[in-house]
Each structure stands twice: as structure tokens, then as C-alpha cells.
Amino acid sequence: MQFSDLGLAAELLRAVEEQGYTQPTPIQEQAIPPILLGQDVMAGAQTGTGKTAAFTLPLLQRLLPQANNSVSPARHPVRTLILAPTRELAAQVWDSVRTYGQHTMLRSACVYGGVSIDPQMKELRAGVEVLVATPGRLLDLVQQRCANLSQVQILVLDEADRMLDMGFLPDLRRIIALLPAQRQNLMFSATFPDDIRKFADQVLRSPVRIQVAARNTVAELVTHSAFKVDPLRKRELLANLVRSRDMRQVLVFTSTKLSANRLSRQLERDGFNCSALHSDKTQGERMQALADFKDGKVQILVATDIAARGLDIEQLPHVINYELPPNAEDYIHRIGRTGRAGMTGEAISLVSPDEQDLLQSIEKLLKKRIPMQPLPVDAFGAPVRHVSQAAASRPTAPTQAPTQPQAALFGSAAAATSQHGKRRPQQIAALFLPPVVAKHD
Questions:
Q1: pLDDT band at 360, cuts 50/70/90?
Q2: Are 111 and 142 in contact (CB under 8 A)?
């Protein structure tokens, strides 16, 4: 099937063609026809399969008869409301709306917190047909009487499961109460847990249910692997993997904002071009870090789970779980940043002994084992840079035989053997001695 077979308008087909697409993905092929007919849709698909275009293209077509050149706010009420859980995802959806609607006269806007509300108020007063928003900022604009939702014809909930996870259910109920009772409702997400299904039953009316992949599945083109490593040695292993495999673009996930900041600073001292992305950053800092990463100016982006949804980077080759997520489903969303749009990807997890239970939960969800790889021979052999004066003057402890747990974590002494069969004492010591603390750690 071609996009031209879906009944889309010429303006939209032209935009699709300019993006280099000719054939719709399965989710697009199944979702676009019922949306064009005005039916409610509840669609789930694994990440990277084109969910955004699956609802953006048909909703733009449904709004085409109402597009005009007038600048009067009365002639441009909000007709479509798209709700997203994060600023990054909202910005990404808006980018798709502008891309596919560039040859139409439809107006759109994107509103989210973390930035000044004044430009957003001005934009809404000028009138838009398509509004992309995060729930909190939208309610602020409603309270300021800048956003009128009384003429919304289409409601889209994107990544609905994430919105409920983030505690947006009360806000969603308040927003839905402001909408006309007669409207089209679309719910798109990578996963649909049971609580989302209950919420969908309250919002959707006889929806067309679409599931192009089993729940909690990941792209088949993503390869999984893991390394068992002491938590104090994770950074050294991460640096070794990036250097030895010549990784040019790596997304690294941590569990907390504190660890993201700390790891980013340490990697910069190790000689990498690195940035951190988390919710404590200003919106400007977050957008700049993401833009630099996409443009290749930043080699390693260290992020919390704020980047696990809505981060669409073309041909991102590597995702590394520096710390495993406490929720197994978040693993799926994290590694969904790679292996997108038919491209291959690699997902690597650094697993400490206290994360074994988390790993088992992930494997249970995936219904398969993640292969455990042997540690690289020289993973901990290189000297640590920028050693503090106190650490440098510390006397060297005598080399001792590793205990069984140490051998399991860091490999046997044979791992420190050179190509000529001679052991390197300094490398063996690096394997089993306490780690040298870098300056300012």
C-alpha cells in the first residue's frame, strides 16, 4: 500500500513525499482510515513505528475545510487538542504537525511549562486550529482566559500511559470537562496497562482498537546485551565501551538527576563531549542539549527517564542503561530510542549485583534472557586521569588474590594478560584494588 491509497489530500501527500516516505507503516495503514471517517481510535504500537504521523495526517485532513487566511481569533478557534506528557514530546508532535501541514493554511501552536507564558498567550489570541500542549500549562492558559476549548472537535491523548504515570489524571479530567461532549477521541501509546484501558473506557466511544505489536514488545532490530560490573567501576566500563567501539552518538540513562549530573561531569573530565538532560534543567538548556546531541556536537547525552519518551533521533545507534530503571516497562521505552524506523540499534545494560532483581524483571517482561557479556580485557587497565593529590600520594596496597565475588565481577587474573602471555602487574592491581577517586567526584 502507498500513502496515495489512503485517501489523503494532495497537500498532505506532497508533504509526506518531501519527507521521503512512500509507504505507510502498519500503524499508519490501520489508523488513518478510521480517523478520516471520524471514529474514535485506541491504538498501540511499539515505539518508533510512526504513531505521530498516524494521527497527525488524518486530523489535518479533517480540518482542511476550516482553514482560511483570516487573522481573526474568532475565525481560528482551537479545533484539535493534542495532549502530551512532556515538553520534549509536545515539541516533537508539534514539529510533525508543522511538517505535514506546511502546504495548508492551518495554524498550530505548542504550549508547555518551563518557559515564559506571555508569547504563548499572544499566539493563542491570534488564533490556532491545532493546539499541542502539556496538561499543566494548558490549564494555566485556560485560567488566564487565553485558551478556549469549547469548539474542540478532536482530542488526541499521546503517550497516555506516561501521563497517568506522571500523575496527570486529575488534570486530564479537568481538561476533558471543558471540551464539547460530541467530539472525536484518539488515544495513542506504546503500551496500554490496565489502568489506561479503564480510563479509555470512560473517554472513548466504541473505539476502533488497533494493536500492531504485542504489549510490551520492543523493536526486533535492537540487540540486547548486559555486563555484570561493580557499581564503582561502571564509569570506567562505560568509557571503555564508548572508546573501544568508537561510539559516536550514545544515549545513557541514569535513574536520578543527581547521578546524571555527576556522570556527565565525570565523563567530561575523561575527555568526552557530554551533556546532561533532566527535569531540573531549564527548558532552554534541555532543548539546547537535545539539539547539540542530534547535530552530533555532543557525543554522550546522559539523561533520566524524561528522555525515555518522545526523544526521536534519526538513526540513534546506541542506548546504554548506566542504571537499570525500577520499572521494567521503562526499559522498553528507554531502548525504544534506538532501532527506530527500520534501523538497527544496540541496547547495553551495566548491571551491578544489587540490580539483579531488576534485570530479572526486565527479562520476564521481554520473555527472553538478555545475554551477559564478558568484561573487556582492558576495561579497568587504563590509569584514571586527574587523580587528586591526596589519592596520588596514597601508598599502593599489596596485590592480593581476588575473592570469588570479585572474580565474578571483574574477571579472573587471566583477563589482565597481554598478547604475549605476560601478566601486567599494574593492570591486575587495577582490577582488584579500590577505585582511585577522580578529582571533585
A1: very high
A2: no
| Lowest-confidence region among 3-12, 66-75, 252-261, 415-424 | 415-424
Statement: the pTM of the whole predicted model exceeds 0.70: no
Q: Is 226 strand, coil or helix? A: strand
Classified as helix, coil or strand, 220 is coil
Question: Cell digits for 12?
Answer: 498532505
CA dist., res. 424 & res. 427, Å (int):
5
Grid cell, residue 365, equals: 517482561
Angle separating helix axes 194-203 and 169-177, nearest 10 degrees = 10
> How many whole angstroms separate alpha carbon 301 and alpha carbon 309?
15
Alpha helices in 37-79 (DSSP H): 51-63
Separation in Å, CA 79 to CA 38, 76, 361, 365: 14, 8, 43, 39
> 222-373 adopts what CATH topology?
Rossmann fold (3.40.50)
Reference 299, options 321, 339, 270; nearest CA is 270
In the structure, what pLDDT confidence band is assigned to residue 267 with cuts at 50, 70 and 90? very high
Nine cell digits for residue 192: 496500554
In whole angstroms, give the CA distance from residue 64 to residue 54: 17
Residues 6+ apart with CB under 8 A from 47: 190, 219, 332, 333, 336, 337, 340
Q: Which amino acid is present at 324?
A: L
- Give yes or no on whether 3-211 and 222-373 have one common fold: yes
Domain ranges of the chain: 3-211, 222-373, 387-441
The CATH superfamily of 3-211 is P-loop containing nucleotide triphosphate hydrolases (3.40.50.300)
Q: Contact, 137 vs 167, CB < 8 A?
A: no
Residue range 287-330, pLDDT digits in tens: 888 888 888 899 999 998 877 665 667 678 899 999 999 888 88
Q: What is the mean pLDDT of residues 245-257?
A: 91
* Residue-level pLDDT at 327: 84
Q: How far is CA 339 from CA 224, 226, 305, 316, in A?
A: 11, 17, 18, 7
Candidates 254, 38, 51; CA nearest to 153 is 38
- What is residue 54's three-state secondary structure? helix
CA atoms of 129 and 198, how far apart (whole Å): 30
